[in-house]
């Protein structure tokens, strides 16, 4: 089990599953780091927490995923940038964020029934609700897809919230300080040319 | 020089600096992967491109940054999620994104004048405009901060834009397909209790 203890700003650390799960569940992507040919490689993957695992997928042809699927140590990190924390000095200027780090070896999901279940659950994370409106996945499509699962046993979270922490001597009222919230927001859905006028638009999570 | 050739979906790859720079310049954070005690560690850092380098900073007390500053191989990745690409099948459902990957060893910036210049430039990336409104950084604050720079010699980009690519047989007009744009957006700035009514609010980039 790798060392997941957070040393820097331990007051921002959390190790409980509910904090970790909430961060993972709010994410569309995770950055996975692996050692490939002796050097680190960090790539983004669509992710979904399914029960006690973080599940990622990709093409069976993708080289890095093939290495990861062999069960080498990997580190998978999800970060949400929640705001700019503007202080009255550069030093105390910061960001609010939620970050979850999963230290684990990946498990290649090769049981066909489990793989089908996980792919359905991943799709459901992108577009909630029964996937009955879309064409079912074919066996060939499922075979072309590589699914890996990372147990959440060694996961940790780090969260910064609130305004700047600065010495009272910096407190000049003529200088604006505070928080500018940031969030990933959806714009207006843009249907493709085939979509009919009566097709119900997507209901995002 | 590590292998930065993109194998999977090479039509989405770009190696020109203008594409890489635009992706880095739009980012608040990068995910840096290093090998610590034999295992990969991926952590988020505030980042700013300054000329031909991607610059990161952190506390001098932070353990992972100390390892990175020693010049071991690292991989630093910036990803923007630009949209959900909803197809009429789970298999062709995708995401639009812009991703830049920088494969390089970090350079510890320890020249005091260069470090001061870089810290000013990093602050300017968070809050554009002259930093004259905030208190100048003290020598002690500068010494407490570790600055590293990653040359952009071995950087690559991967970009997906546009709608779903699906077979014509899937084109059922009763099913909505298209793109839901996603973007990190700023909310209403929230001043702290010290901020006076006349303090000019921040002008974000």
Automatic annotation (TrEMBL), chains A, B:
Q: Which residues cross the membrane?
A: none
UniProt cross-references to InterPro entries, sorted A to Z: Pyridox_Oxase-rel, Split_barrel_FMN-bd
Highest taxon above the source species: Bacteria
Q: What is this protein called?
A: Flavin-nucleotide-binding protein
**Species in which this protein is naturally found:** Vulcanimicrobium alpinum
What taxonomic classification does the UniProt entry list for its organism?
Bacteria, Bacillati, Vulcanimicrobiota, Vulcanimicrobiia, Vulcanimicrobiales
